[in-house]
Specification:
Layout: H1 7-17, H2 23-31, H3 40-47, H4 53-64, H5 70-82, H6 90-100, H7 104-115, H8 124-134, H9 139-147, H10 166-175, H11 180-189, H12 199-213, H13 229-237, H14 252-258, H15 264-271, H16 279-289, H17 307-324, H18 335-343, H19 352-363, H20 365-368
Helix pairs in contact: 2-19, 3-7, 4-5, 4-6, 6-7, 8-9, 12-16, 16-18, 18-19
Length: 369
């Protein structure tokens, strides 16, 4: 797996590898805006570096949304390009991709940045839109074709034993399609394989959560009672993050960290297969469990490893997990990722979760007073 960082992202990673910041210094670094956060507008302009970006998006979206007010469409595009907000709808990301003739790789990147997941080849809409994009069709063609297809059967049970390689098989199946007629046949043939939830991410979630729900106090100790999801949330996953919902006084960094922070309700919805596993939750679970979910030997347990060695090893392991789940790789210019990477530099005298909680405690100090 080759990972290439931009100059600014590489500089942030090197800064973290030095291991010279205390939690208080790390909180100050984030709060003072010394980290140059990656924005959606920056990514979009990198994908389409031409002066007609706004005009092209406005004209395309007005055509896509003929019943919407032209002024509201224009304002939505302007907000994206000015950095006020970013699209949260996968439909809007695909509309942008069609409007700008983006590649599959570029679309995958934007989807990951805005919605946690890249193109999901087990999702019927994703796979159809991606095929039409890859073959130079328009958005309306893709939407109309998708709406003409039979509905995916509703699954009463989550596919616990699903082949973990099924996504790759589906991807290869649709890559071999070269006509709309065959596309319909292949889609219908695979109806039973489609699903909107990401099975691989759920498997990681269950593995980590099991470790927290069933605490192991050691071979010579009496086993503790299993934790409830509320207890897991309070004991392990809160990490000093304030629970109040009002974020009006928060800085940009505080808002980004607080946004979508897990709670017990979210854990219950995921376990009940009513919601996907958020990328932020998966990262937090990795930090809290330190990816120790079995008794296998790990070189990361050795004291002789330097901070740089430990961070590099975790960097590759965690990026492999994110890739396996269809999520974007770690980005040192993303505030949550930066905090996770900082936590991974913890030494033998401090756990990763303690290190992360210390930064959050310092960052939200006014909330805790």
């Amino acid at each position: 797996m080759e990972i290439q960082l931009t100059y600014r992202a590489a500089a942030e990673y090197d800064h973290l590898r030095m291991g010279s910041m205390t939690p208080a210094m790390a909180a100050e670094y984030l709060q003072d805006g010394k980290i140059l956060l990656r924005s959606f507008q920056e990514s979009l302009r990198e994908q389409y570096p031409y002066p007609d970006l706004q005009l092209r998006l406005v004209n395309s979206f007005r055509a896509y949304e003929p019943d919407a007010s032209p002024a509201s469409v224009t304002k939505k595009i302007q907000n994206w390009l000015s950095g006020k907000n970013q699209p949260s709808s996968r439909e809007d990301i695909f509309r942008i991709a069609f409007a700008l003739d983006l590649t599959e790789t570029q679309t995958n990147f934007l989807l990951g940045q805005c919605t946690d997941y890249g193109i999901h080849y087990r999702d019927g809409k994703d796979v159809i839109y991606t095929w039409f994009l890859r073959n130079d069709y328009g958005y309306e063609d893709a939407r109309n074709f998708y709406e003409s297809l039979p509905a995916v059967p509703y699954m009463m049970e989550f596919p616990q034993s699903v082949n973990t390689h099924i996504t790759k098989h589906l991807q290869n199946d649709f890559y071999s399609v070269h006509s709309v007629e065959k596309l319909r046949r292949v889609y219908i043939k695979n109806l039973s394989n489609f699903g909107t939830l990401h099975v691989r991410a759920y498997q990681y979630f269950e593995k980590y959560l099991h470790q927290l729900i069933h605490p192991d106090t050691g071979w010579d100790s009496v086993s503790e009672e299993d934790y409830s999801l509320e207890s897991v949330m309070e004991q392990y996953l809160s990490l000093q993050m304030p629970s109040r919902r009002n974020r009006t006084r928060y800085s940009v960094t505080q808002k980004l960290l607080k946004q979508n922070w897990p709670n017990a309700t979210a854990l219950k919805n995921i376990r009940a297969h009513r919601a996907d596993v958020p990328r932020k939750l998966l990262l937090i679970l990795y930090v809290v469990t330190e990816n120790v979910v079995d008794d296998d030997y790990s070189e990361l347990d050795e004291d002789y490893l330097s901070i740089q060695d430990r961070l590099n090893n975790h960097w590759w392991i965690l990026n492999a997990i994110l890739t396996d789940c269809g999520m974007p790789l770690l980005d040192p210019r993303n505030v949550t990722d930066w905090l996770v990477l900082y936590a991974l530099t913890a030494d033998e005298d401090e756990s990763m979760s303690e290190r992360m909680a210390s930064v959050i405690d310092n960052l939200f100090q006014e909330e805790h007073e």
